[in-house]
Model the fold of this input.
Amino acid sequence: MANYFTGNKEYFPEIKKIAYEGPKSKNPMAFKYYDAEKSIAGKKMRDHLRFAIAYWHSFCGDGADPFGAATHIFPWNSSGDPVQNAINKADAAFEFISKIGAPYYAWHDRDIAPEGKDADDSAKILEKITDELKKRQDATGVKLLWGTANVFSNPRFMNGAATNPDFAVVAHAANQIQHAIDGTIKLGGEGYTFWGGREGYMSILNTDMKREKEHLAMILSISRDYARSKGFKGCFYIEPKPMEPTKHQYDFDSETVIGFLRAHGLDKDFKLNIEANHAELAGHDFVHELSVCVDNDMLGSVDANRGEPRNGWDTDQFPSSVYETTLAMCQILRMGGFKTGGLNFDAKIRRNSVDAEDLFIAHIGGMDTFAFGLEKAAAIAADGRLPDLLKKRYSSFDSGDGAKFEKGGFKLNELAALAKDYGKTGWTSGKQELYENILQEILLS
Ligand code: XUL
Ligand code: CO
Done:
């Protein structure tokens, strides 16, 4: 029997380990599709999906919104001592993660440990709590997918962190990043993430964009150098987001971030962490962002959630569209699966989801939705019709002059001279409805 919690209190006593019961089950507290041990396309489901639980939403997000106070009253926050609360929270977190059966978790420094009276005090508290987390990782077998520093919540970061116009704040950001990297290394984290919280601007009138972006590249470079010097072998991730909290964020979307990383020689150590809701905010489909990354060998990890298309902000809902997760898993299979990354549920239960079981129900739904997507993505590959149609669509480039063109074999005037037939050229159906019908047929079968 796994050791679900290591403290002296069980936080979810009514809930046992969540089991796989299959698609016919009507039990809300069971998996219908996520069967961790099932082999599919040569690997166990658990190893394809590499689910992670986001500490910030699941154990810190209290349901507060701009219109009302907290609705999620967590029992682990009641000791009166912030450091003891953090230890209690770690017990609750490892109990939850073990019961839901996720192999990984992810954190910001400030999710796991409270801020102290100054930078040194904060670092000491973080060290103490990461020691506590290490004990719990060892006891349960749960691993750290990635760590990160929250350099956006403290008021000192209101003008940005690495891109702050005040050098003293940049130094504070560096201090937090250094300690978050130390903690990630101590806990065997497989990745380290940079989400550019307030790295952007609200008004171009008071912003020197060029200088701010150079500062960002500098912080990323020296953070990479520091982590490597301390033996970190994992991957660094940039998590694109176009806006919120700033009007315009520098890590707008995948294309922007890949260009930025290449421009600053960071593309060997950094990959991208793609969040579904951020893709939505950038005006892209989730699968578009994933596909851009896979094409460039730059997909590192995924923040698995969904947005609300009619809202212009990050609603961070749990994934529920099998259409989206199927297309996402097609891209993840196309790249040959995750290496250091995984599917991290950067998702929160709703403000009015106030029962202890709601956190379990939300994750069960998200995990089943991705497990179903994995099955269907494997079925699409095995069926072969969609990949064949796609290949056929570009077949004029597979041989003859088309292949010569792809290899750079034509000057413009030579290519232009081939354009003799203006008649029916280009009159080729895109077959979009056929592709959609086949996808639908596989989804429904
Ligand atoms: C914010 C967001 C973050 C990052 C980690 O929109 O997605 O939680 O995932 O800093
Ligand atoms: Co995220």
